[in-house]
Amino acid sequence: MKPNFVTEIIDEHNKNGRFKARVHTRFPPEPNGYLHIGHAKAIYLNSSIAKQYNGKFNLRFDDTNPCKEEQEYVDSIIKDVKWLGADYEDRLFYASDYFEKMYEYAAALIKKEKAYVCDLNAEEIRLSRGTLTAPGKDSPYRNRSIEENLNLFARMRSGEFPDGSKTLRAKIDMSHPNLNMRDPIMYRILHSSHHRTKDAWCIYPTYDFAHGLEDSIENITHSICTLEFENHRPLYDWFLNELGIFHPQQIEFARLNITYTVLSKRKLLALVEGNFVDGWDDPRMPTLAGLRRRGYPREAITNFCEEIGVAKFNSTIDVAVLEECVRAVLNKTAERKMAVLRPLKVTLVNYPEGKIEEFDAVNNPEDASMGTRKIFFSRELFIEQEDFRENPPKEFFRLSPGREVRLRYAYFIKCEEAVKDKEGNVVELRCTYDPLTRGGNAPDGRKVKATIHWVSAHNSFNAQVNLYDRLFNNPDPDDAAEGKDFKSNINMQSLEIINNAKLEPSLKDAAKNQRFQFERLGYFCPDIKSTEQNLVFNRISTLRDTWAKIEKKLKK
């Protein structure tokens, strides 16, 4: 990892002996949704720092809100963290592992007269907190005795009181300039079954109370958080100082924001529940499950995290940076194949009927070790519809009546006739081939201006191909018209399904984790949900940043 302000702080700690040159980080997700590309940055940062300093890295679930948490989310997060290569070894923990210890810590603060049971409801607490310019108002229950508070807290735990009727609050300062320090809630009553502890508890600690305790219990040295927790750091420190327990250092960094993308679990959940996408792993989603299903290589995501670095201030990264990281990896690693998405039949009228030829095709010009494969040539072929124009514009150099082009790896062909249906649509091209141009070169030295891809009708096969585009039309999805929200910026053409695309036969046995470059078309991979009977390929990326070029033209 490149040096950054976080590593500078750690270097200073190692220099002054704050943690005895020990580095121990963690990634603490809440299991209330799937992880997204923003979480990848946090995972990469924490795990890379631990590795860089020969330290340790924990995965810990902050499962303190049973109303929103599910085992499905836990399972998906574990899978995502492993997929990114973040090695937590055997250090998989849960906040719920520490519920009893946290209860004891809360009782200890009551005994120090630093916490009290409050009967105000949520709205009353909100109104009594004050504003940035006006102090808050003490709760009428703030001065209960230690004995009464311990008794009420125990009865809260035993389930005597309904949800929302009581809370346990820290006793700090209702006039503190930081609103987070104005007697924040430590525990609330939730009669809700927990995905791990079931019905053992009906009171649950808040994130602000639990976060620092979990770090302390696990001997975390550097609690690396996103910037929204900067104003919570005094509270983090207050709890640890008042309890007199091991005190990690909280450090805040800028969260990841990307154009054309929403990185809020709440908004992503709204997309799923509103059926705007096909689940959390929809390939248009910025979730790690979605990016993995789309075919994004793990290396591309970690390279992206390394490239954008670690900042102290929030900014927005152009999604083209991520897409280019994907292309850079795939260009070196993806095998080249030929596929025709919108087929137009070509009949070579002077090619012998029944004859089949084989040609050697390079699997990846970037890596000779990937070798070659056999492709088959026959009298009947398929090319892309867009590679033919009956009346071509000036800059069109592909196939048209009387024009000659090169078929990749094969021969020169010339269009002699365009066959049309009753509606006037071109449905077939009758062409001739030059047998002297085998391999794609003419012995007489004549040149052609275009090389196009093709597949043989002899042994190509049909498959579904999903063309994915950006899920939002607006670089800032939250920039919506008055009275509308981010969903109004959804790109309704973000998925185009092509049925009966024609693919070369070697793709029939493609593994679910393989990625390919369909020559001239982009990068593709088999969908993880496709079957042998219904093969589906997803477009991972185009070959170039077409959106950026389009926007550049529009600005002109």
Largest sheet: 7 strands, mixed
User: Would you give the CATH topology of the largest domain?
Assistant: Rossmann fold
Task: Give the overall average pLDDT.
Answer: 95
First and last CA, distance: 39 Å
In terms of per-residue confidence, which ranges show pLDDT below 50 for 5 or more consecutive residues?
A: 546-556
| Rg over C-alpha atoms, rounded to the nearest angstrom | 31 Å
Strand tally, please? 27
Helix segment count? 13
Question: What is the topology, as strand order, of the major beta sheet?
Answer: 12-25-26-27-23-24-13
Q: Which structural class should the secondary elements be placed in?
A: alpha/beta
CATH architecture of the largest domain: 3-Layer(aba) Sandwich
Cα shape: elongated
* Percentage of residues assigned to helices: 25-40%
Strand content: 15-25%
Number of domains: 3
Under CATH, the homologous superfamily of the largest domain reads: HUPs
> Would you state the CATH class of the largest domain?
Alpha Beta
Structure overview:
- This protein has 556 residues and is α/β, with parallel strands linked by helices.
- It is built from 13 helices and 27 strands.
- The chain has a seven-stranded mixed sheet with strand order 12-25-26-27-23-24-13, covered by helices on one side. A seven-stranded mixed sheet has the order 21-18-19-20-14-17-22, with no helix packed on it.
- Helix 2 packs across helix 11.
- The protein is elongated.
